[in-house]
Fold each of these.
Amino acid sequence: MGNTADEFLVAAEEKAFDTDHRRVINYNIGKYDAAVERGLSRLINLDTAKKKGHVIKWKMMETLDKMLPEFEANFQKRGGKVIWANDAEEANREILNIMQKAGAKTVVKSKSMVTEEIELNEFLEHHHIESLETDLGEYIVQLLGQKPYHIVTPAMHLSKEDIAKLFHERFGTPPDATPEQLTQKARELLRDKYVQADVGITGANFLIADTGSIAISENEGNARLSTSFPKIHIAIVGIEKIIPSMADLDLFWPMLATHGTGQNLTVYNTILSGPRQTGEPDGPEEMYVILLDNGRTNLLAQKEQRQGLYCIRCGACLNACPIYKNIGGHSYDTTYPGPIGSIITPHMKGMEDFKHLSYASSLCGKCSEVCPVKIDIHKMLLLNRRDAVNEGLVPNKERWGWSFWKKGMLKRKTMDYFSGKTKNWMLRTFFKKTWGHYREMPEVADKSFAKQWQDKHSGE
């Protein structure tokens, strides 16, 4: 195991036995479950909607080389500029170029997992540019110097008391401030920033090919403010976010909202098709869309596993996963935690360092069951495990262990050759510190069932 895997095991164990963490997460996910159940009950034919979404995303991934240039051509027609970025370094460099050319010094940023993926805030800070998160959850974790805990709800691991304490220490609000008072304080602090910022940076939930537009879903209005006031708007979007037509939002917007938060639709749904046009009252003077690869084409090249790119980032699989609910989002040490992160990260960031995530699963299949675009997540986890073995990335100890087990299991004689005493010694010696770390080790009978049967019926 590499360092990443070792760190994961330590962090996971620590969180699994942190009762306060468990209390907060169970409470927050419980509220989510109730809301989503209500939301899903409003959909007349959920399975058909999921199948339709799956087929549209399948078609997009199979024709990505045609759909992305179509988006680019249509976006450019309205004065937008498209930049293709192979990796995080290239994306960050392009953003810095735009900002330096404009003499920009301040950025307001709406919630975007892709900007987390390329570590944009750290990069801009390094170049003395202030980058402020404007989504309330993201703003809270930025104040704490943390990474988002969840794809949809970045501060899910914090209770309202934790946030009240943070605001009291930072801004002098009452230590027992209500969520409404805390939100009001954040609004006061952030409002001026939108007006003063030189650049607004967002992600996008969807790229719309036929109109050359981006679609953004949000609940707080901060993305609209980030794209309306600053003179420059930069949207950074993964290449897999493409959909064929604006008409497809009729399916994807309700499916994203319902699976993400249980709403029919999120509060604000915005379609942006380039910079401010003549006669329009607001909007940026320049608009850029950065199309980010950053390992996505590695996954696209895997025919059996490319459906990992169908993901619409609703977060449903995280909330359903018994492992995520016990070890939390930060333990994964990836931008995309939980089941979806476990299947895409090894391809985007390297199988050797991240293969362990595909083993962090009970394979219960709940993740596949709740996915709004029917990604066969638990099957992908198994395929990643297979690939790790085929690429020779498993330790010798593990390889020898399975080889020995296979030999024994294929021949009844071999299994019966060892007495129960020997088997118990092997369990204690080789498994007590790993498999038996928090379990009572099983006691193997002196004789196998076959041997007992043979002895019992030998005189008949």
Amino acid sequence: MAIEFKLDVVMADRKVKLKDLAEQVGITLANLSNLKCGKAKAIRISTLESICNHLECQPGDILKFDPSVKPVIEHQFSATSIDLPVDFLD
């Protein structure tokens, strides 16, 4: 993924524990852990805002974009030769 989470670095710099930040932000420990470890596929803007508020940082401190990484297409569907009955849409 071209977007990297750097939450672990920001938390370490500020000496903030995962459990404490999860409680302050109102997010489960598991979800925050996924963000910290870079396993998350998405983050709500409201969650990002709350994290930035509690860590007193900017979104760019937590997120990094690497344009050299090619995007991964997770779901690709190709249906070039599907024969449907004539009354399919009736």
Amino acid sequence: METINKLSLSLVIIGALNWLLVGLFNYDLVASLFGGQTAFLSRVIYTLVGIAGIWSISLLLKPRTEA
């Protein structure tokens, strides 16, 4: 489960950085790297980032435990 959490947070960070680039410079890095916003691979990346965002909601709501 810890691996899924780390992967999810990594994808959310990638998505956040991509949105930062879109907001500041009107530059979509994912689309640039994978052939445009409608390219199959770009859509897969966008979908994975979205699923990771949904998964991260559970991390936000999970009670913290002291290590």
Amino acid sequence: MTAKYDKLGLKFLYPENWKLIDDSDSESPHVITLESPDGSCIWAVHVYPQDVDRDNILKETLASMQETYEDLEVSQDETELGGREAKGVETLFYCLDFLVRAQLHFVETEDHLLLFWTQSEDREFEKNAQVFKAISFSLLQSL
């Protein structure tokens, strides 16, 4: 079964057993996070105004990650989300004894700059990527 998010002009479907954390009432960026039932997967969207500097956001985000995960590996990554070009990075890092993959992709819309953050244990990432893409597709198709 699916649940539906509908707030601030953003609409998307997501697995109903995933935990929703809605930080959309705070100052920019608004952040909506979904966490899998076992806590091993995260999908998040950060909603920025269109005029923000994406390079600066990415630089600050990666600097914060590097403070936490000193073995952080970063590579450029491009993909397509919901029929739109998505540019960003893919990271690999160790958390406890697990190799974790996180992808950060920016997508421009008419009104916003969206940063999609997807994260999972590396061994499970490809399987979870289908869920991540379905949620992102649902959001982008509603715009």
